[in-house]
Amino acid sequence: MAIVVITGCSSGVGYDSALAFARRGDRVYACVRNPERAASLAQKGAEEKLDIRIKLLDVTASSSFSAFFEAIVAESGRVDLLINNAGILHPGAWEDLSEVQARAVMETNFFGPLLLSRAVLPQMRSQESGYIIMISSLSGVAGLAGDVAYSASKFALEGATEALRHEVDRYGIRLALVLGGQYATKIFRTSGASQLDGDEVLPPGYPLDSVYRELVEWKLKQVRDSWPDAMDPAVVAKLLLTIADSDGSQLRWVADDLASRVLATVHGQSDTERDAFLRLAGGAQWWSEGLSAPKVTES
After folding, report:
1. Which residues carry out catalysis?
2. pTM of the full predicted structure?
3. Is residue 217 part of a domain?
């Protein structure tokens, strides 16, 4: 039985993933910010007699992270897997977004996962094992108009995860990124991204006199029109099971054909080739191998 922590479990990928891991016999700590939105998952877990334990967690409240993991370790003895899934978006042209909106996206999508991961690292190091999986996005490898804040948060998450894995691999800790296309989650509804059920497209309060209005309306209409074809989040949940059982040698995992095509286009190298190049370029292979720093030859 693995001890699994998943953020953003009130719906979508987090909800389906909590059920998927619990159904195979793992103990799942399913994190939500609003306890009312955890009712459905709690009921489903009770009906199936699954070991799902609802935990309240605000991924922007980093001061609570250490105590959060201490409580889990006190109860379960370890933390085997952390899945950083919680995320938000504020759609619109960069010039139209407020600083508060932009910072909120970075706090939730970037600083939240990275600081939560930092808080669990001491426990994983003491275990000499652990897996941290970041739910990224195609917006983290290909920035598009209307996605500046969201893309920035996911690009940052991609780079930080790729770098962090080289720091912690000597301790038996693995990291992975998951990229996918459009899935039928509630991120658009809860973020006010698109009025999926009505005639209006712009989020409430969006400046109607924006010079970018046509662009933003066009982009959000695309989201609304493609919504019926959005993929089932259970697809990602199933992939997460596969990643959790892998040896950690693969960094980026694609959840669907669209993600596969995009990644193949923007990344000419395979993960293995890129990984080897970065280790060589960084000169820190000795660290990953658990060796001491090589002596610097004085000229």
Report:
1. 10, 136, 150, 154
2. 0.88
3. no
